[in-house]
Hints:
The chain is mainly α. 48% of the residues lie in helices and 2% in strands. The protein is built from 40 helices and eight strands. It binds protoporphyrin IX containing FE.
Amino acid sequence: MSELGTSTNEKYRKISNDLQHLTIDFLYKDLPHPPSGYLALPPFSETPSAQAPTSYTKGSYVNYAYRSADGSFYNPLIPSMGQAGTPYARSVPGTLQTNLKNLPDPGLIFDMLLKRPTKADGSGEEEDGFTPHPGGVSSLFFALADLIIHSIFNTNSQNPTINNASSYLDLSVLYGSSEREVQSVRKKDVKGRPDGTGRLYEDVFADGRLLLMPPAVCALLVVFSRNHNFIAQRIIDINEWGTYKDPELLKAQIDNASLDEERQNAARALQAQDDEIFHRSRLVNCGFFMKVILGDYVGAILGLARDGSSWRLDPLMEMRRLSHEFAPRGEGNVVSIEFNLLYRWHATLSRQDKQWTEKMFHDTLQQDGLNVQFSQLQPSQFFMAAGKALGQNKDVRTWTFDGLKRDTNGRFRDADIAKILQDSTSYRAGAFRARGIPEVLRVIEILGIEQARGWGACSLNEFRKFIGLKPYKSFKEWNSDDSVARAAEVLYKDIDNLELHVGMQAEQAKVPGPGAGLCPGYTISRSILADAVCLTRGDRFLTVDFTPFNLTTWGFADCQYPTAPDGSFGGMLTKLLFRHFPAYYPARSAYAHFPFLDPVYMEKELRNRGTADQYIWARPRPPVGVQVGEVSVIDSYDAVTKILSAPQDWKADYDLKLGTVVAGLKNPKLPDMTLINKLLRDSSDKWASSFVRETQNLLKTKCIAHAGSRTDVKFVDIVSDVINVLPVRWICQELAGLELGKEYPESKYITELHNVCRYVFLDWDPIYDWQLRDSSTTFYREFIKDVKVHLETESGFISNTLSHFKKPFAERPAFLEELHKQGHERRADELATALFCAVVPTAAHWAQDVAHIVNYYIEAGRVEERAELVALVKTGKIAGRALDLIKDALVADPAVFAAQRTAQRGTSMTRRDGSNLAAGETVFLNIIEANNLNRRIAPTTRLASILLENMDTCYPLNSLKRSLL
Ligand code: HEM
């Protein structure tokens, strides 16, 4: 299905889609909806706790869907379905009455069937008894699995029929499962009032159970915690509905109100704003969680990233069955005890996480005065010690893990979190297998076995029948390892007696192959997909309410999979790692692209496929000079000017980027552009008049008349339909002879020019690096293919190269004739590459500059300057005053609003904290801020112009710009 899904043939993709519909419908129907059995009665008599968020003021209610704290009202008609604090569902009635007294002792079961050896004594183990995961899965994968299971399972220790977590992937590990817990993470000001920004406190999360898990689990959760605040900030900044106010203003209104009613209204407005941004941000953040689960996690389960397939199972899609019935979505979910038992993946603990857990258990027990061997530890002793350890500190803002320290704002250091995450990617998880669980978790397994018995869970064979698998006939069929099968037989006598939990965890594991990446036992592997489908498809906030209306337009777009290949084969965690730790996860790092796979394993896989060189496999080195993770921002006018005017000391990476586009990652280099630049300069007068002619042409064809009585008024989208098109036409028609037409319209060129420009000049965000490079390289290849044909045909060589247009070429432009004449000694592809480098990267900047100038002078307050500029341009007097006016506009609103430079040697320039910038350190120059802070300086000498001039010397801001100025 995955191969069909990524085929270029539309027919195959349609077949894949139809098959996917059937599969999802099938998996969704694996479990009854609503569940047919519960461990106890759901509390229908209790009023579910969801309350509508407060409105701003009467009459201006902002209507949006939001997740309740406890998961109530996910199904509005059965509000308690899947609510935290309600009973587990039971999918399979256990009909085989085994007298509990006849069941083997849980400790003995652990020792004979589940315990990981401490030295190699069977197949697959390394010296210390550890069996590495055969599919290369990393420990970080299981950190996410840990977040998933803690989001949906929290068995109440006093009443084990009750699940204290909701049955939804609502990130309750971050936000909490009750209103009290949610309030504990939401940010308040010093007076205890809502923050007004919908933010959480820095780096907090609500579920204390995770503090007893390996540190990567908490570190990964911190990523989602930061992502919430990132989203909230964007939502308030964009202010899509125009309803948000500056929280400080709202607080001042409360403080300054003279009447009680006035104060209450202001307080309500603050609360409502905080609620709305919080809830919308949570929806977006859960959207990310869901995409990471379906993209990275299910992708790893099916081995898709390993196999280089970006096809994904999409259980959320709207679809009809063959009978035309709607396949239901968003109707709610209740997790079952069978899935609780299925997910206890304790065998997968990596070597390093095992050591960490041993130390954590040891310390926790010692704090309680206990010095017991793990093999002797009793459940009651464990509970007592763990309860005390977790109960000590109620304030989530002070929680810490792995000995990390918070700064004065409560934040952990980026370096610390990134280190834990990268360690975890490099740790190979343990294999699923019988006898794979470290002894330190013996007590947990005993609890698990007892728990399953207390729930009256069904047997392994009953569960297999339920999901449509053949029941096992013998122990040997269940696990072909003789010694395991015999031990199980001694303990259970008959295969039908084999308990579900033990049976699933000690079942023979699958081997890696197509569709098999996780490689648990077959029963787990078959059921886990049904669970993923039911959990996501049953959640209305991931399906019917997953809309731009609820998430905001930006938020909805932000949590979508990338539409172009991004090097991660459909993974989304990459985006979060790049976003929150850009200094620690550089572009192309395998640690960012495949965080769930051991890089050593994955490199070998990709070497076999010939694509390994596109990635950086070495573990990222901490960035030079950076103290807390950010790049140093320089925003003083003097410092920015100094840096820009010393390119030998402060290197830009423009050449490297463009060299990569035209010569590849391995050996990026630029061609000799002397001839091209000379020819372009020789014709600069001609270009100026061709731009004027084309502008008039476009205005004539793109303007539409006013539909009413105003016959003197016409409309035109000056940016999209005129300014952006100008460089496209110039490059295609005047210079390169590229066909413009239906199959390759101007709009497509505009996007491609924009992407090249972004990659070469503005590629600061590693999130977009891969896509921009890929798009730029593809465009370059198509560009030179066509230009080369022109140049070669000119020289009498009839090329059989097919261009992407698959149409006859446009007429050969005079420029290429001249290029061929003067450059006949050089190879056609070299000349074509030089032309690409000279005109393509800055074309979008040119258009943006012009758009900014028009935008600046279109404002009502600048009528006089506009008239002056128009008059000067008409007389052809560009130098002097006209140029100053143009620069004024670009100073106020520069297209190149920032730049990055790397110090080539140690400098006397300082960071914000007063320390010196070091050699190799990268700085971010904030042009806009530098100008703002220096209003006294005469506009024309400010940075827009300085940057433009500098770009001319560092890298040609091209003849296009000259043609305008
Ligand atoms: C070092 C790592 C881990 C430790 C220390 C740990 C510890 C625990 C503990 C203390 C319990 C509660 C036992 C009880 O009350 O019956 C538990 C339950 C559980 N564990 Fe683990 N675990 C670890 C890793 C994992 C992983 C990687 C998974 C699977 C992704 C997992 C899945 C579960 C599940 C599903 C439960 C039942 C939860 C419930 O009923 O509330 N655990 N584990």
